[in-house]
Write a structure and sequence with these properties.
about 290 residues, alpha+beta, Helix Hairpins, Elongation Factor Tu (Ef-tu), domain 3, 2 domains, 6-stranded antiparallel barrel, about 65% helix
């Protein structure tokens, strides 16, 4: 082999080594980029889940505070109307008292100035005493009514002040929630948010009936809770069984159900998550929170 041939062989070997090194670097970089991409995807999914939970909690708070605000406004309006009616009644009773007092004064003056004869004066005096007693009793009764009305007005005034304070507190909380909504960039009028279902209230009941599937597993259950307890279609409940001395009296989780039909005093749910260590039976307990 000539010298030029040897040089070319050496050059080819060097280039082969360089290409292998370049290929290894490319492969290492590709793996690093793939790992970083998967890591960022996991972070995005976690942040999205946190945001969904915050949105759900906010919507629940917003609905609750709106109901409290409406209730406070209604109570305030009712209290104002009752206060106005009581003030009008007090005014009428005072007018009646003034009229009765005037009639009494007139009767007394007439009694003092009428009659020429003693018999007539005695008869008139007796009649006037009866009238005066009746008027005195009427005045005392009216004074009692006025005192009662004044007490009622005072009570209603305190109630009105409390309702106004409660209304102010609810308005401040609503404004604070609106600020949170604005900071999160959420539109409360968005149909997707308006249609979100509120979580079930804190309730606890019993499984009163079950229906098995072909594999002898529980498919449908009937519970002792209904719409009178605040439940509605789509709410989810947890199923568990009280423990015994064998397992240290620890409750046993059996699964989760979703309500598909709700009556005032009972509901039917389908099993959406069944535990592997037990089958849901009649007499087991259900709860909206574990």
């Amino acid at each position: 082999m000539s010298f030029v041939g040897k040089v070319l062989v050496v050059v080819q070997v060097v280039l082969s080594i360089c290409f292998m090194g370049f290929a290894g670097a490319v492969f290492t970089a590709q793996n690093n980029w793939r790992n970083e991409s998967l890591k960022y995807k996991d972070n995005v999914a976690s942040l999205q889940k946190s945001m969904d939970e915050l949105e759900s909690e906010f919507n629940n708070k917003l609905t609750e505070k709106t109901k409290e605000l409406n209730k406070a406004l209604s109570e305030a309006e009712t209290a104002k109307a009752e206060n106005k009616a009581l003030q009008a009644s007090l005014k009428n009773e005072k007018a009646k008292l003034a009229t009765v007092s005037s009639e009494r004064d007139t009767s007394v003056a007439q009694a003092e100035t009428t009659g020429e004869e003693a018999k007539f004066r005695r008869q008139e005096s007796d009649r006037q005493r009866v009238v005066n007693k009746t008027l005195h009793d009427t005045v005392n009764e009216l004074r009692g009514k006025i005192k009662s009305l004044e007490d009622t007005i005072f009570t209603q005034s305190i109630r009105e002040k409390n309702l106004v304070a409660k209304h102010t507190k609810v308005v401040d909380e609503l404004n604070y929630l609106n600020k949170i909504v604005a900071n999160l960039g959420i539109d409360p009028k968005d149909p997707a948010i308006a249609g979100m279902q509120s979580p079930p209230p804190a309730v606890e009941g019993l499984i009163i009936n079950t229906k098995k599937d072909k594999r002898n597993g529980t498919r449908f259950v009937e519970v002792s809770l209904g719409s009178d307890d605040g439940l509605s279609k789509g709410h989810q409940l947890f199923v568990y069984r009280f423990g015994n001395e064998t397992n240290g009296n620890r409750p046993k989780y059996l699964g989760k159900i979703e309500l598909v039909y709700v009556d005032p005093d009972k509901a039917v749910g389908t099993v959406i998550d069944a535990a592997k260590n037990g089958v849901i039976e009649k007499g087991d307990h259900v709860n909206s929170k574990l």
